[in-house]
């Protein structure tokens, strides 16, 4: 797919990117190259390939899910700008 200079100007305008008139032909070539690469990707057979979240397979570290009380409310609340009766105090936002 080939992008024209006018289309490159429109894309730059929509992206709110200032591009000099002299740079528009190069931008049009770059955008055309990107679209050509995307067309190549569309030709790849991905039937039966599961989606990946990253390029290297990795297993997340897991820990046993145990319910605790935290055991350190004083330490946690010591960082609060305002704490009352063992809780974080925040300004009222809804009348």
UniProtKB/TrEMBL annotation:
Q: Which GO terms describe its molecular function?
A: asparaginyl-tRNA synthase (glutamine-hydrolyzing) activity; ATP binding; glutaminyl-tRNA synthase (glutamine-hydrolyzing) activity; transferase activity
Keyword Ion transport annotated? no
Q: Does the keyword Transferase apply?
A: yes
Looking up InterPro entries in the UniProt record yields:
Asp/Glu-ADT_sf_sub_c, GatC
Q: What class of enzyme is it?
A: ligase
The record, for Pfam families, names: GatC
Q: Which reaction does it catalyse?
A: L-glutamyl-tRNA(Gln) + L-glutamine + ATP + H2O = L-glutaminyl-tRNA(Gln) + L-glutamate + ADP + phosphate + H(+); L-aspartyl-tRNA(Asn) + L-glutamine + ATP + H2O = L-asparaginyl-tRNA(Asn) + L-glutamate + ADP + phosphate + 2 H(+)
According to its UniProt entry, one GO biological process term is: regulation of translational fidelity
Alphabetical keyword list: ATP-binding, Ligase, Nucleotide-binding, Protein biosynthesis, Transferase
Write down the EC number. 6.3.5.-
Gene3D superfamilies in UniProt: Glu-tRNAGln amidotransferase C subunit, N-terminal domain
Q: Spell out the family assignment given in the record's similarity comment.
A: Belongs to the GatC family.
What the entry lists under PANTHER family is as follows: GLUTAMYL-TRNA(GLN) AMIDOTRANSFERASE SUBUNIT C, MITOCHONDRIAL
Function of the molecule:
Allows the formation of correctly charged Asn-tRNA(Asn) or Gln-tRNA(Gln) through the transamidation of misacylated Asp-tRNA(Asn) or Glu-tRNA(Gln) in organisms which lack either or both of asparaginyl-tRNA or glutaminyl-tRNA synthetases. The reaction takes place in the presence of glutamine and ATP through an activated phospho-Asp-tRNA(Asn) or phospho-Glu-tRNA(Gln).
Q: How does it assemble?
A: Heterotrimer of A, B and C subunits.
Name used for this protein in its record: Aspartyl/glutamyl-tRNA(Asn/Gln) amidotransferase subunit C
Query: What gene name is listed for this protein?
Result: gatC
């Amino acid at each position: 797919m080939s992008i024209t200079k006018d289309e490159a100007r429109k894309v730059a305008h929509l992206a709110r990117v200032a591009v000099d008139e002299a740079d528009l032909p190069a931008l049009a070539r770059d955008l055309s190259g990107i679209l050509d690469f995307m067309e190549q990707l569309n030709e790849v057979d991905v039937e039966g390939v599961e989606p990946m979240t990253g390029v290297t397979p990795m297993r997340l570290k897991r820990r046993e899910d145990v319910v605790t009380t935290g055991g350190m409310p004083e330490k946690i609340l010591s960082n609060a700008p305002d704490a009352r009766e063992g809780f974080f105090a925040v300004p009222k936002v809804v009348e």
